[in-house]
Structure formats: structure tokens, C-alpha cells
Design goal:
The strands form five sheets. Strands 1, 3, 4, 6, 7, 8, 9, 10, 11, 12 and 13 form an eleven-stranded mixed beta sheet that branches. A four-stranded antiparallel beta sheet has the order 14-15-20-19, with no helix packed on it. A four-stranded antiparallel beta sheet has the order 18-17-21-23, with no helix packed on it. The chain folds into two domains: about 280 residues, Rossmann fold, CATH 3.40.50; about 90 residues, no CATH class. The protein contains ten helices and 23 strands. By secondary structure, the protein is of the alpha/beta class. Helix content is about 25%, strand content about 25%.
Length: about 500
């Protein structure tokens, strides 16, 4: 008994004194190249901590809360793994640590969508043997207050590890890894069915009065929760009494739900923000395509992007996102289009980029299986915005429209080698309105870097719009094959 007590006391003392690391600091991790990279963790207040990696030795003292961090000087890409050692009252060694490019991927189900559920899963999984690519998958959780750690671990990209990883994140990473020939790390932090306000800090949400309607919706959810919870209890009792036939009743939204404003920021983003990254990719918006939230999505999305940039403290890092795909079964087609338009308007923020995918969605499925092209289009945007490569990375982007009697001429940026219809033939998806504001299907013809739009139903053209439907028939692309986004001239 005395021996057991002595061992317990010794273990308790060692635990108190141990330098501890967050989940992001582990074997096989990948550090961002060419900028100072932060290594961080916990120790006893006042404890001296030393970090050694690739010939560098840096030290820090834990603060009054036991937190410490050091900065490694900028390093070039390193494809051979090396040990990283942390010493305080104890010593820890992380093995096989690389240096390269680190990106974060977040959003809802289309970012969470796995490789095994995408196109050609057998072929893609079998070929996913990239030892210099590293993957980190954040465990799903929500919290009322900002957290300092997540659950997860770094994995080497292998056929065994890739099936349940984000498909968009993998195809994005693979494209850049092969193009740039440097190690590549990707941190997945996404949760299906979640709205953007769940991924935004409480401070940012409450600082903007225009977002109060969204917060008000959630307050009403909480007010109704006691009654909804009681109804759910009765439904479960009935379901059990009937032999559990059919699908189980769904629990109501309430405290701790993944829709809680700031809940996912607190649990799944805030703990990542000390980690040095290159940029973020984002695929979300479906859960904000509602009557109250769709008109506010631009303000909400811009607030979230700026909020993340402040939280990371790395300046205007690249933030690349996917515009919602075409989807015929959208609850409200107008709300769906308003979110798409809001996403396009968000490009006014510096160092943002958007992948348009209104040509590769699935009309009857909110989860298109073609995630390969999504990843490739995001990678094109990264090559220009993050890595300064001169290339056409976007489809035609609406600039302005000018009226010429019964016709309107539409001007575009990012026309590449010119404008044309995908697959040849006539341009589709354009509509024209006169002074009465009523839109009519229109004929459209490419004329250099512009499109001329006319309709026999409109004699005095005032407004033009394109792809204005949740599942539009539209085919404007540039010669590089990238599609144009939805737009309206007003």
C-alpha cells in the first residue's frame, strides 16, 4: 500500500510539472514555411521551456496561467522529417516533423464530405499515397466559451487514412502539393448542417447590430426549448412503445446544439488560431439560405472572415471559398440565389477567392459527388492569391452593364482568352428587364470580352441578370473552361 501511495504521489507531482502540448503539436505535424512558426503549450507558471528543431534553440517562460509559446525562425520547405524537442521539467520529442504549406478547411457538410463518398472512391483512395502530405481532423464538438485545445492527431496521407477525410480539402491539397512539390498539411474543421454564425465569435456577432435578427432567431429557439424538449420526450416514449419502427424522432435544437452562435468558433476554430497557417478554404452557406438569414449572409460572411483574421493575428491571409452549387430542391430558390450573390459580393474583401460550381452540382442532391473539380478550382485561386502565380483562376466576373436601347452590353473581368458557351451553341441563362422591372428570357451573344443581351419582350432594356435560379440553365464560361457566377446588374 505504501509503495502504491508513493507511486501515486510521484505521478501527481510529475503531472503537475509536465510540459503539455495541444493536439496540434504532435508526431507527423507540418509547420508553415517562410514565416515564423509558433510552438505553444502549457507548463507550470514561471517554468522555463526550451524548443529545439533543425538547429534552432528557442526558449520561453510560462505565464501566470501556465501558457507558453516560442517562435521558430522562418524555414524553407523540408521534405525530410526531423525531431522537435521540448524541454522543461520534463522532455518531449515529436518525431517526423516537416516544413511546408498549412491550410485550414472549414464549413458544413460539403466540406466535411469524405473521399469515400465522392466520385471514383476506389481509385482515389488507392492512389492516396503521399507521405509528404499531412492530415489533421478536428473532432466535432461545441462549447459556450473559447477553448484552447481540440481532439485530433496528425496523420500521414495514405490509402488507410484518407477515406474519411474531407474530399475538397484532399483534392485541393493534392493539387497544390503536386504543383509546388513541397510538403502540404491540411487541418479539417467542418460540421455538416451548420450555419456561419456558429463559426463566428460571440464578440464579432454582438458588435454588429445588423446581425441581431440572426441572434434573435436563436433566442427564440432557446425560449421554445423547454416545450420542444418535453414534446421530444413524449415522441420518444411513443416511438419506443411502438417497437421503434421507422426513423427515431429528431431531438430539438437547444443548448449545446451545433447551431449555437459562436459555439463552433469556440470549440473548433479558436484552439487552432495559435497555429501558423497559410490560408483557409471554406464551403458553406446552405444552412443560411432562409428568409431571414439569406439577405444578411454577406454581412455575416464578411464579419466571420474578418473575425478569423483577427483571431489568427496573421494579417489578411488568403480566404478562399466555394459558391453554392446548383440545387433544384432548395427550399426557397430566391434565398439560395441570394446566398450565392452574397458570396460573390464578398470578393470585395482583399485576398479572397471563389470557386464557382454552378456547372457541376447535382439538381436533386445537395451533396455533389464531384469534389475533384471543386478542389482543383480552389487550388487555382490559391495559386494566384496565395502564391502570386499569374494565371486565369476564376470564371467571368460581372463588372458592369450598359443600356443601348433594346439591348444591354455586359462587361466582365477574368475573361481569359475570351467568352463562350460551354459545349458550344448559344449562351443560356440571361434575362432582361425593362422599366417595369419584369424579367424575360433573353438572347445573348459573346462579343469580345462582353456579352450583348436582348429580348423581343423588352424594348427599353434597364436590367440584366444571369443564372438567377437555384438550378439555372446557364453556360457562360471563359476559354479556360471556368464558369461565370450568378449576377444582377442592379
Amino acid at each position: 500500500m505504501k509503495t502504491r501511495l508513493a507511486i501515486s504521489a510521484l505521478c501527481a507531482t510529475a503531472l503537475l510539472a509536465d510540459v503539455r502540448l495541444p493536439a496540434l503539436m504532435g508526431d507527423h505535424m507540418l509547420l508553415q514555411r517562410q514565416v515564423p512558426a509558433r510552438i505553444f503549450g502549457w507548463a507550470d507558471p514561471g517554468e522555463q521551456v526550451t524548443v529545439q528543431y533543425r538547429g534552432q534553440t528557442v526558449a520561453a517562460t510560462a505565464d501566470e496561467k501556465g501558457k507558453w509559446h516560442v517562435w521558430l525562425s522562418p524555414m524553407e520547405a523540408a521534405s525530410e522529417g526531423a525531431d522537435l524537442t521540448i524541454r522543461g521539467k520534463n522532455s518531449m520529442t515529436l518525431s517526423d516533423v516537416l516544413v511546408g504549406e498549412v491550410w485550414v478547411g472549414s464549413g458544413q457538410s460539403n466540406m466535411q464530405w469524405t473521399v469515400k463518398n465522392s466520385n471514383n472512391p476506389g481509385q482515389e483512395i488507392a492512389a492516396a499515397n503521399y507521405p509528404k502530405m499531412r492530415l489533421f481532423q478536428v473532432t466535432l464538438t461545441t462549447q459556450d466559451t473559447p477553448q484552447d485545445d481540440v481532439k485530433g492527431k496528425w496523420m500521414i496521407c495514405t490509402p488507410e487514412n484518407i477515406p474519411n477525410f474531407t474530399a475538397v480539402g484532399y483534392f485541393f491539397s493534392r493539387s497544390l502539393h503536386k504543383k509546388m512539390n513541397v510538403p502540404f498539411g491540411f487541418i479539417q474543421s467542418a460540421w455538416g448542417g451548420t450555419p456561419a454564425q456558429a463559426w463566428t465569435s460571440r464578440k464579432a456577432l454582438h458588435a454588429d447590430a445588423s446581425l441581431f435578427p440572426i441572434l434573435g432567431e436563436w433566442n427564440r429557439v432557446l425560449e421554445r426549448y423547454p416545450e420542444a424538449s418535453e414534446n421530444y420526450r413524449k415522441q420518444i416514449e411513443t416511438w419506443n412503445a411502438n417497437g421503434k419502427g421507422g426513423r427515431a424522432p429528431a431531438p430539438p435544437m437547444g443548448p449545446g446544439h451545433s447551431h449555437t452562435p459562436a459555439g463552433l468558433f469556440n470549440a473548433m476554430i479558436h484552439p487552432l488560431t495559435p497555429y501558423t497557417i497559410k490560408g483557409v478554404i471554406w464551403y458553406q452557406g446552405e444552412s443560411n439560405a432562409s428568409k431571414i438569414q439569406a439577405p444578411l449572409y454577406r454581412r455575416l460572411f464578411e464579419t466571420m472572415i474578418l473575425d478569423w483574421r483577427r483571431a489568427w493575428g496573421q494579417g489578411e491571409f488568403p480566404f478562399l471559398f466555394v459558391q453554392l452549387a446548383n440545387f433544384a430542391k432548395a427550399g426557397s430558390p430566391e434565398d439560395w440565389v441570394l446566398v450565392q450573390e452574397a458570396q460573390m459580393q464578398t470578393l470585395e474583401l482583399r485576398r479572397t477567392g471563389m470557386a464557382v460550381i454552378n456547372d457541376i452540382g447535382e439538381a436533386a442532391d445537395i451533396h455533389p459527388k464531384n469534389k475533384q473539380d471543386v478542389g482543383e478550382r480552389l487550388a487555382l485561386a490559391a495559386r494566384h492569391i496565395a502564391y502570386a502565380e499569374q494565371l486565369v483562376y476564376s470564371g467571368p466576373r460581372f463588372r458592369q452593364a450598359t443600356s443601348d436601347g433594346a439591348k444591354m452590353r455586359v462587361w466582365f473581368d477574368s475573361v481569359g482568352g475570351g467568352l463562350k458557351a460551354r459545349g458550344g451553341g448559344e449562351l443560356k441563362g440571361f434575362e432582361l428587364a425593362g422599366p417595369d422591372g419584369v424579367f424575360h428570357p433573353a438572347e445573348a451573344k459573346a462579343d469580345g470580352t462582353t456579352v450583348v443581351v436582348s429580348s423581343p419582350s423588352v424594348t427599353a432594356a434597364r436590367k440584366v441578370r444571369y443564372a438567377w435560379a437555384s438550378d439555372p440553365v446557364c453556360n457562360l464560361i471563359n476559354t479556360e473552361g471556368l464558369p461565370a457566377s450568378v449576377f444582377r446588374s442592379e
